[in-house]
Amino acid sequence: MEDTNRPPGKTTIAPNVLVTLTKAAALQVEGVSKLAQLPGGVNNIFKRGQADGVRLQIKEDQRVYADIYAVLTNKVNVRDTSKKIQEAVERAISQMVGLEVGAINVFIEDIDYPENSQAG
After folding, report:
1. Structural domain for 97, as ranges
2. 22: part of which helix (H) or strand (E)?
3. Helix (H, G, I), strand (E, B) or coil at 91
4. Does any domain span residue 3?
5. Which range among 12-21, 23-32, 76-85, 88-97 shows the weakest confidence by mean pLDDT?
6. Tens-digit pLDDT profile for residues 71-82
7. The CATH number of the domain where 77 resides is what?
8. Count of domains forming the chain
9. Distance CA 113, CA 72 (A)
10. Angle 29-30-33 (CA atoms, 0-180°, nearest 5)?
11. What is the value of pTM for the model shown?
């Protein structure tokens, strides 16, 4: 007879999964052109919880802390778009993974202007 009261085991989520979810959520926000290269360049590739445009930490309180480095399109409200990025990332982490979010910091690194509108 099978014991149905016993838990099925544990689930472990790799840091890269959280990074992928965070990047996808941020990029889906209207007005986000792309994510920027993290400060520190190539050396960041080998650090866990980091990728282009995203730096994540899970601290002792088991909450996710995210830094997102975004490049926005030129015709958006920066404050509103930043808030939408925070909301989208918080929703993705809490609903899809079930982790609590401690803070989501958004750093606007640049604004994308179409090539033909730049003064030359």
Report:
1. 31-114
2. helix 15-27
3. helix
4. no
5. 12-21
6. 999 999 999 999
7. 3.30.70
8. 1
9. 9
10. 90
11. 0.80
